[in-house]
Protein backbone atom coordinates (compact mmCIF):
# COMPACT_ATOMS: atom_id res chain seq x y z
CA UNK A 1 0.00 0.00 0.00
CA UNK A 2 1.20 3.48 -0.83
CA UNK A 3 1.41 6.05 1.99
CA UNK A 4 -1.65 7.79 0.63
CA UNK A 5 -3.66 4.58 0.77
CA UNK A 6 -2.56 3.96 4.37
CA UNK A 7 -3.46 7.51 5.36
CA UNK A 8 -6.89 7.11 3.75
CA UNK A 9 -7.44 3.84 5.63
CA UNK A 10 -6.55 5.45 8.94
CA UNK A 11 -9.02 8.24 8.30
CA UNK A 12 -11.84 6.10 6.89
CA UNK A 13 -11.64 3.22 9.35
CA UNK A 14 -10.43 4.89 12.53
CA UNK A 15 -11.09 8.60 12.10
CA UNK A 16 -7.40 9.49 12.41
CA UNK A 17 -6.24 12.44 10.35
CA UNK A 18 -2.73 11.36 9.37
CA UNK A 19 -0.98 12.85 6.35
CA UNK A 20 0.78 10.59 3.81
CA UNK A 21 4.00 12.42 4.70
CA UNK A 22 3.61 11.27 8.31
CA UNK A 23 3.16 7.67 7.16
CA UNK A 24 6.38 8.02 5.16
CA UNK A 25 8.16 9.40 8.22
CA UNK A 26 7.00 6.36 10.20
CA UNK A 27 8.37 4.07 7.51
CA UNK A 28 11.76 5.83 7.55
CA UNK A 29 11.93 5.76 11.34
CA UNK A 30 11.99 9.56 11.56
CA UNK A 31 8.82 9.65 13.68
CA UNK A 32 7.00 7.14 15.87
CA UNK A 33 3.22 6.62 15.88
CA UNK A 34 1.30 6.98 19.12
CA UNK A 35 -0.23 3.88 20.71
CA UNK A 36 -3.60 4.65 19.09
CA UNK A 37 -1.97 5.28 15.72
CA UNK A 38 0.05 2.07 15.90
CA UNK A 39 -3.04 0.02 16.74
CA UNK A 40 -4.96 1.62 13.89
CA UNK A 41 -2.04 1.18 11.50
CA UNK A 42 -1.90 -2.52 12.34
CA UNK A 43 -5.63 -2.74 11.62
CA UNK A 44 -5.25 -1.06 8.24
CA UNK A 45 -2.35 -3.34 7.30
CA UNK A 46 -3.98 -6.51 8.70
CA UNK A 47 -1.20 -7.37 11.14
CA UNK A 48 -0.38 -7.14 14.83
CA UNK A 49 1.22 -4.02 16.35
CA UNK A 50 4.31 -6.04 17.25
CA UNK A 51 4.92 -6.90 13.58
CA UNK A 52 5.28 -3.19 12.76
CA UNK A 53 8.03 -2.61 15.30
CA UNK A 54 11.68 -3.52 15.17
CA UNK A 55 13.03 -5.44 18.15
CA UNK A 56 11.57 -3.46 21.07
CA UNK A 57 14.11 -1.77 23.33
CA UNK A 58 12.31 0.80 25.47
CA UNK A 59 9.44 0.22 27.89
CA UNK A 60 7.11 2.09 25.54
CA UNK A 61 8.13 -0.10 22.59
CA UNK A 62 7.56 -3.30 24.56
CA UNK A 63 4.15 -2.04 25.65
CA UNK A 64 3.18 -1.09 22.12
CA UNK A 65 4.43 -4.41 20.74
CA UNK A 66 1.95 -6.11 23.10
CA UNK A 67 -0.84 -3.83 21.86
CA UNK A 68 -1.48 -2.42 25.33
CA UNK A 69 -2.38 1.16 26.18
CA UNK A 70 -0.73 2.87 29.17
CA UNK A 71 -3.86 2.71 31.30
CA UNK A 72 -4.23 -1.04 30.82
CA UNK A 73 -0.60 -1.76 31.67
CA UNK A 74 -0.70 0.59 34.66
CA UNK A 75 -3.77 -1.26 35.97
CA UNK A 76 -2.08 -4.64 35.57
CA UNK A 77 1.05 -3.43 37.32
CA UNK A 78 -0.83 -1.68 40.12
CA UNK A 79 0.07 1.94 39.37
CA UNK A 80 -1.84 5.11 38.62
CA UNK A 81 -1.68 5.79 34.85
CA UNK A 82 0.04 9.14 35.40
CA UNK A 83 2.71 7.59 37.60
CA UNK A 84 3.32 4.82 35.08
CA UNK A 85 3.58 7.23 32.14
CA UNK A 86 6.10 9.35 34.04
CA UNK A 87 8.32 6.29 34.48
CA UNK A 88 7.87 5.24 30.86
CA UNK A 89 8.81 8.69 29.56
CA UNK A 90 11.84 9.05 31.85
CA UNK A 91 13.13 5.53 31.20
CA UNK A 92 13.58 5.01 34.96
CA UNK A 93 11.41 2.36 36.58
CA UNK A 94 10.64 2.99 40.27
CA UNK A 95 8.08 0.29 40.98
CA UNK A 96 8.34 -1.97 44.03
CA UNK A 97 9.12 -5.70 43.93
CA UNK A 98 5.52 -6.75 43.30
CA UNK A 99 5.02 -4.14 40.58
CA UNK A 100 8.30 -5.10 38.91
CA UNK A 101 7.26 -8.75 38.78
CA UNK A 102 3.87 -7.73 37.37
CA UNK A 103 5.53 -5.58 34.69
CA UNK A 104 7.84 -8.38 33.60
CA UNK A 105 4.90 -10.80 33.46
CA UNK A 106 2.54 -8.46 31.59
CA UNK A 107 5.12 -7.63 28.91
CA UNK A 108 6.69 -11.12 28.93
CA UNK A 109 10.14 -9.63 29.50
CA UNK A 110 13.24 -11.72 29.96
CA UNK A 111 15.45 -10.63 32.83
CA UNK A 112 17.87 -8.98 30.41
CA UNK A 113 15.02 -7.09 28.75
CA UNK A 114 13.64 -6.01 32.12
CA UNK A 115 17.01 -4.55 33.10
CA UNK A 116 17.27 -2.73 29.76
CA UNK A 117 13.77 -1.18 29.75
CA UNK A 118 13.96 -0.05 33.38
CA UNK A 119 17.30 1.72 32.90
CA UNK A 120 19.03 -0.27 35.63
CA UNK A 121 21.87 -1.97 33.77
CA UNK A 122 24.66 0.14 35.28
CA UNK A 123 23.22 -0.25 38.77
CA UNK A 124 22.92 -4.02 38.31
CA UNK A 125 26.47 -4.34 37.02
CA UNK A 126 27.80 -2.41 40.00
CA UNK A 127 25.91 -4.50 42.54
CA UNK A 128 26.96 -7.78 40.93
CA UNK A 129 30.63 -6.77 40.85
CA UNK A 130 30.49 -5.78 44.50
CA UNK A 131 28.74 -9.02 45.43
CA UNK A 132 31.37 -11.10 43.64
CA UNK A 133 34.32 -9.29 45.19
CA UNK A 134 33.13 -8.72 48.77
CA UNK A 135 30.39 -10.21 51.01
CA UNK A 136 27.70 -11.38 48.60
CA UNK A 137 25.12 -11.72 51.38
CA UNK A 138 24.91 -7.94 51.74
CA UNK A 139 23.68 -7.57 48.14
CA UNK A 140 20.73 -9.96 48.20
CA UNK A 141 18.27 -7.34 49.47
CA UNK A 142 19.35 -4.51 47.09
CA UNK A 143 19.15 -6.87 44.12
CA UNK A 144 15.75 -8.21 45.21
CA UNK A 145 14.46 -4.63 45.09
CA UNK A 146 15.99 -4.15 41.67
CA UNK A 147 14.90 -7.35 39.93
CA UNK A 148 11.83 -9.64 39.81
CA UNK A 149 13.83 -12.63 41.07
CA UNK A 150 13.03 -14.55 44.31
CA UNK A 151 15.48 -13.92 47.14
CA UNK A 152 16.24 -17.61 47.54
CA UNK A 153 17.28 -17.78 43.89
CA UNK A 154 19.36 -14.62 44.24
CA UNK A 155 21.19 -16.11 47.21
CA UNK A 156 22.16 -19.23 45.25
CA UNK A 157 23.28 -17.20 42.24
CA UNK A 158 25.29 -14.62 44.19
CA UNK A 159 27.08 -17.31 46.17
CA UNK A 160 27.98 -19.04 42.90
CA UNK A 161 29.20 -15.79 41.31
CA UNK A 162 31.31 -15.07 44.39
CA UNK A 163 32.84 -18.56 44.35
CA UNK A 164 33.54 -18.43 40.61
CA UNK A 165 35.26 -15.06 40.92
CA UNK A 166 37.35 -16.18 43.91
CA UNK A 167 38.42 -19.34 42.07
CA UNK A 168 39.64 -17.26 39.15
CA UNK A 169 41.56 -14.94 41.44
CA UNK A 170 43.19 -17.82 43.31
CA UNK A 171 44.18 -19.36 39.99
CA UNK A 172 45.61 -16.02 38.84
CA UNK A 173 47.72 -15.73 41.97
CA UNK A 174 48.93 -19.29 41.50
CA UNK A 175 49.97 -18.56 37.91
CA UNK A 176 51.69 -15.40 39.02
CA UNK A 177 53.75 -17.12 41.67
CA UNK A 178 51.93 -15.42 44.56
CA UNK A 179 52.63 -11.84 43.53
CA UNK A 180 49.81 -9.74 45.04
CA UNK A 181 49.76 -7.50 41.97
CA UNK A 182 48.22 -10.36 40.00
CA UNK A 183 45.02 -10.07 42.03
CA UNK A 184 43.83 -7.55 39.43
CA UNK A 185 44.84 -9.79 36.52
CA UNK A 186 42.99 -10.49 33.32
CA UNK A 187 41.03 -13.50 34.62
CA UNK A 188 39.29 -11.47 37.31
CA UNK A 189 38.69 -8.41 35.11
CA UNK A 190 37.22 -10.45 32.29
CA UNK A 191 34.89 -12.24 34.67
CA UNK A 192 33.62 -8.99 36.17
CA UNK A 193 33.09 -7.46 32.74
CA UNK A 194 30.84 -10.36 31.76
CA UNK A 195 29.21 -10.85 35.15
CA UNK A 196 25.76 -9.55 34.19
CA UNK A 197 25.57 -11.99 31.26
CA UNK A 198 26.61 -14.80 33.62
CA UNK A 199 23.95 -13.67 36.07
CA UNK A 200 21.24 -13.65 33.40
CA UNK A 201 22.17 -17.16 32.26
CA UNK A 202 22.03 -18.48 35.83
CA UNK A 203 18.70 -16.75 36.45
CA UNK A 204 17.24 -18.26 33.30
CA UNK A 205 16.33 -14.83 31.97
CA UNK A 206 18.86 -14.01 29.27
CA UNK A 207 17.21 -12.75 26.14
Automatic annotation (TrEMBL):
Q: Residues in domain HTH cro/C1-type? A: 26-52, 59-114
Residue intervals passing through the bilayer: none
User: Which PROSITE patterns is this protein grouped with?
Assistant: HTH_CROC1 (PS50943)
What is this protein called in UniProt? Helix-turn-helix transcriptional regulator
> Can you name the source organism?
Streptomyces polychromogenes
Ranked from the top, the taxonomy reads:
Bacteria, Bacillati, Actinomycetota, Actinomycetes, Kitasatosporales
Amino acid sequence: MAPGHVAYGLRAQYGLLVAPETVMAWERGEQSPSSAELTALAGVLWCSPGELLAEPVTLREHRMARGMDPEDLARRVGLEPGAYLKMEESGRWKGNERQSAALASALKLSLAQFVAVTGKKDELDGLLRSAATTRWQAYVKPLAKLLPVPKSQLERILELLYNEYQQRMVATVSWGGGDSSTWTGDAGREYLEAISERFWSLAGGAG
